Amino acid sequence: MVRLVALLVLTALTLVPRRTLLASEGSQGAAAEAGLPATAPAPVRPTFSLAPNPVRLGAPLFLTLTLPEPDWAAFEVFDISGRRVASRPLERLAAGRATRSWAPGLWRPGLYLVRWWTGSRDGGAARLVVLR
Questions:
Q1: Domain range summary for the chain, segments of one domain joined by +
Q2: pTM of the full predicted structure?
Q3: Class of domain 47-131
């Protein structure tokens, strides 16, 4: 399986034109050497973290989202079978770090998936382990 993934990555890299690779490196010197115009740095994407992980039943869980600009954000928690067990509706967050607390009081011990997204369609997921 690892060999297959490595082969796919190498194949994808060989299919990307060299000019594209130089432009995506972010080095203005390499872009200038290739005769390409200097490109603006890639936009910063939001980051998300859970703490503590694993969390004990009844103890607070802290969801931290760092946004490069003000945006709407929402969170959902799913159990291992895919059922939504909790959600936080969209709320407007300022740029920078925003931390929200949650207490998994009625959840069962196990593995959960915390999904988040913003109004600009950025998003992601993180695993959460809940202990007794």
A1: 2-33, 47-131
A2: 0.62
A3: mainly beta
